[in-house]
């Protein structure tokens, strides 16, 4: 097992759970995040750094000396900054971290991408080739955030192809729900999980995908030790096994995305729009939590 792990963006919504899960599995975790961010629970240390600076990124990682890196740091919300800032920032972050991880001799690197690379929500129209979506579905990004994530995936492929000593993986988490958000804290969109269930228009944008942050953390942990089991450079959806919706997607998707009605009609009861079959097949990963179990745990 890789023991000393550096997590970039460890203070973030997903990072806090990734740090906790890795620490609970017996790893030593060092978080790297912007100055002024809170140290995540479970981290042995928290190092302030701006990872858009290549030299600083290399220096910080060389000082920590991890055997593995989880790269989560990013501008994580589409359109939350100008497109001209978002694209170069996320691309620089991914490049600096992957490059430094290889140069210091890390055994494994896991990098966060996003299902948005597929291009859903494009106001000019988007039709999937098929549902449920899997990792082989073509990417058709339509904004800087999705493009930055597709560039990140290509970058990981490049590093995987030219560095046999470092094993790379990509995770595409669904809409991340942190543990406190089941108890009513606002989610990334500013509304609660209950709002999202009561108002399906909110979740329709992302085809009702979601994942509990701890479940995504478990997949990250498995990928850190996946050398031998999984080829380097592979991409995995990290989504819940069901949609974040009270109604079946065969009914909801046609209402919000008339163009994909034909594909949606084939989705079975409780089946999500994103398949997690690849992570299950290659790693035995299954999310342990879904919105029904988590919300009922809050009320009982
Ligand atoms: N939250 C989601 O629903 C979701 C879905 C799909 C993919 N992702 C991806 O997962 C990753 C984590 O997302 P999140 O929701 O935890 O985001 P977040 O915004 O909560 O956390 C991102 C962290 O990165 C840090 N960061 C940003 N710029 C940095 C820099 N220059 N140097 C160092 N640290 C920097 C931030 O301070 C923050 O703590 C991101 O790559 C995001 O794109 C998130």
Write up what this structure looks like.
The protein has twelve helices and nine strands. The protein is an alpha/beta fold and 300 residues long. Strand 1, helix 1 (13-24) and strand 2 form a beta-alpha-beta unit. Helix 1 (13-24) crosses helix 8 (213-224), helix 2 (54-64) packs parallel to helix 3 (83-103) and helix 3 (83-103) packs parallel to helix 4 (144-162). The radius of gyration is 18 Å and the shape is globular. The protein starts with a strand and ends with a helix. Nicotinamide-adenine-dinucleotide binds at residues 8-9, 11-15, 33-34, 37, 49-52, 72-74, 76, 93, 112, 114, 173, 175-176, 188.
Which keywords apply here?
300 residues; alpha/beta; Rossmann fold; 7-stranded parallel beta sheet; two-stranded parallel ribbon; 12 helices; 13% strand; binds nicotinamide-adenine-dinucleotide
